[in-house]
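Q: What does the assembly look like in three dimensions?
Context provided by user:
Components: two
Sequences:
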Amino acid sequence: MTGKIITISRQFGSGGRTIGKLAAEKLGLRCYDREIISRIAMDSGLAEDYVSEASEHTEQGGLFATLGEADYMGSSNRLTIWSTQCKVLKEIAAKGPCIIVGRCADYVLRDEYDLLKVFLYADADVRAERIVNEYGESDVNPKKRLKDKDKRRKAYYEIYTDQRYGDPLNYDLCLNTGTFGIEGCADLIADLYEKQLKK
Amino acid sequence: MTGKIITISRQFGSGGRTIGKLAAEKLGLRCYDREIISRIAMDSGLAEDYVSEASEHTEQGGLFATLGEADYMGSSNRLTIWSTQCKVLKEIAAKGPCIIVGRCADYVLRDEYDLLKVFLYADADVRAERIVNEYGESDVNPKKRLKDKDKRRKAYYEIYTDQRYGDPLNYDLCLNTGTFGIEGCADLIADLYEKQLKK
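A: Here is the predicted structure of the complete assembly.
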């Protein structure tokens, strides 16, 4: 136990990354996000883009579905990525209080660390508008992009964690970012964290 | 639109009723809870105990499953209760800002009123301890009591609302009452409500 860590799980397009960064600034904590991917890549010897892509994908039919030979390398790499991810998350957590966005940190760190586990989500309309503003237009309709990403994140989370994605019971706090706004959610998380530290 | 209303949905044993009452005191609002049952009973001519019991039950197989003759009266009453419940909730909401605990108010009022929709939950251990402290021991193991009640609430909510019970997307805010405590949750809800009013 090294002090409370905030983990942020989030739906694609809900603004989780920005909220994590803002809350970290308010609290004077470090926020880990893309950096975790770089570290996994470095530790595993796999390319960063490959890690980024693979760490939200699973094979059709689940991680341990019967594998054709062509799939073997991909699956082996995915297991390497997952075990490296667990190691990297624990190294980060061991350094003390911080904010970690994504990467199933809520699950990986749940038994060994004191966590404030947050889930951020929003209505599809709000998220569709946000991804177009943040990531630009694409050939694919924004609602379709959301649907694909939601499906992948859900599959990834559920296969590795054995918990239901987006089930409030996995978290201390779930916030609709469409209701409270990006700044509002960051304030709320920072306030709650400070209140809990005072106890 | 008559001003913001807080709806509190809650898992059995999570302390939702107490939190609603406390938040209402802090905000100087009226909190509607058991009183809704009394009003439904009065309006429908059915006994209060019957309404209370029936309003968290559904027939095996769903509300509109094939009904035997013996079931017919029960089903007809349940539909009466539901339509009276919708009417009573809308009458309450029309009076202005307040807190409403349970009764699918989040769903019934969603299109016509400005709501802050809250879902309260907690781990089974926390809830089991709470129901023994609040409602006393019973012949039935507290975990079994929770499981039965969870199942009923879920079935009731999902049959009448066509939404998934406990899905964060139905709410603005979901709080684990085991993490923040009864008083802590009431403070948080009251603070958020006041902040939203200032916007």
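Follow-up: The longest helix of chain A spans residues 69-94.
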